């Protein structure tokens, strides 16, 4: 059974930093949510030589940029957000939203997903893209954490594969931080 990706559009959404980010309030929990689009992330070798930057229609008339991997052997995508931007006392999940093109290759080795919390705790997960559907957006769960009142440091989230072989055909839309319901 296919799991449909939740539409992150909402009536109370606000685009920030020249459409590099979007903020909205989750209807169930009342917690603040964020989408950090590809331009708000640090992408190693994020030059035109290795990545194509294309417009994608997000909601209504809004276009955002996505990053499409041409070819790299060292994949490294990183994001961060100040904990103070999130609602206190809520369990959040961090997800990378990606799509594999039909001709994408080099995904024999699993990706590593890492979540680094202000208190020094680090969560690691590995996920294989080999059996993931092609041509549709999927969410890769980096990990979960609970926000604390008064925390001002950053939560950091990474997606990487440093196996040294060439890969292509991955489209990175961005990273979502949202309450776990």
Q: Could you name the key traits of this structure?
A:
181 residues; Jelly Rolls; 8-stranded antiparallel beta sheet; 0% helix; mainly beta
Please explain how this structure is put together.
The protein has one domain (13-179): Sandwich (Jelly Rolls), CATH 2.60.120. By secondary structure, it is mainly beta. 31% of the residues are buried. Strand 5 and strand 6 form a beta hairpin. The protein contains no helices and 13 strands. Strands 1, 2, 3, 5, 6, 8, 11 and 13 form an eight-stranded antiparallel β-sheet that branches. It has a five-stranded antiparallel β-sheet with strand order 4-7-12-9-10, with no helix packed on it. Helix content is 0%, strand content 54%.
Per DSSP, the total helix count is 0
CATH first level: which class?
Answer: Mainly Beta
Mean pLDDT: 87
- Fraction in beta strands: over 45%
* Topology order in helix (H) and strand (E) letters: EEEEEEEEEEEEE
Oligomerization state? single chain
- What CATH architecture do you see? Sandwich
3D shape = globular
**Major β-sheet, in short?**
8 strands, antiparallel
Task: Give the termini separation.
Answer: 21 Å
CATH fold topology? Jelly Rolls
CATH H level, superfamily name: Galactose-binding domain-like
User: What is the CA-atom radius of gyration, in angstroms?
Assistant: 16 Å
Number of domains: 1
């Amino acid at each position: 059974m296919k799991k449909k990706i939740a539409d992150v559009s909402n009536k109370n959404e606000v685009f920030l930093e020249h459409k590099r980010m979007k903020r909205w309030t989750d209807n169930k929990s009342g917690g603040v949510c964020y989408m950090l689009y590809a331009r708000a992330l640090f992408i190693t070798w994020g030059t035109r030589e290795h990545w194509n930057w294309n417009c994608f229609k997000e909601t209504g008339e809004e276009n955002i940029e996505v990053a499409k991997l041409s070819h790299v052997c060292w994949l490294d995508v990183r994001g961060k957000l100040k904990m103070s931007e999130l609602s206190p006392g809520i369990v959040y999940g961090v997800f990378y939203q990606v799509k594999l093109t039909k001709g994408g290759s080099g995904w024999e080795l699993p990706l590593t997903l890492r979540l680094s919390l202000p208190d020094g705790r680090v969560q690691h997960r590995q996920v294989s893209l080999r059996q993931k559907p092609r041509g549709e957006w999927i969410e890769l769960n980096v990990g979960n954490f609970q926000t604390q009142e008064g925390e001002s440091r950053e939560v950091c989230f990474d997606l990487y594969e440093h196996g040294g072989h060439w890969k292509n055909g991955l489209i990175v839309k961005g990273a979502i931080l949202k309450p776990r319901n």
